[in-house]
Specification:
CATH topology: 60s Ribosomal Protein L30, Chain: A
Number of helices: 2
Strand content: 25-35%
Distance between the termini: 21 Å
CATH architecture: 2-Layer Sandwich
Structural class: alpha+beta
Oligomer: single chain
Helix content: 25-40%
Shape: globular
Radius of gyration: 15 Å
Order of helices and strands: EEEHEHEE
CATH superfamily: RutC-like
Mean pLDDT: 95
Amino acid sequence: MDITKITLLRPAGLVNSPAFSHVAVVPAGAATIYVGGQNGVDADGKLVSDGVAEQSARALDNAEAALAAVGAKLSDVIQWNVLFVEGVDLQAAYGAIGPRLGAAAAEAGNPPLVTGARVAALGVPGALIEVSAVAAVLPS
């Protein structure tokens, strides 16, 4: 394994999914970036919609804006955490963000690690999704 680059692995013996990897290795000297939970809210904190597809797209927009603020991008994400309110249409949620995440994974060379969970509610009343991320960027 090359310890001078960020590596995402899907080891033998574990499910080989095109949607996620199992292990991330970040070498010394890389900047690690943590993006806190992002909901489908605008800059004023108001929900953009009561639909999960629209909220999902905006939550990803918000995460992307947070990453951009420190010079990172979606393809630098090594771990996504996604929380869905119980009962939402997961197909609609993933349909709204899947193409962008897939493009980012293709740019990175492998998909990031992903943790998803269904929860009773989120901290923002009416929010249906929350995403958080860990990204890593090697020095230029």
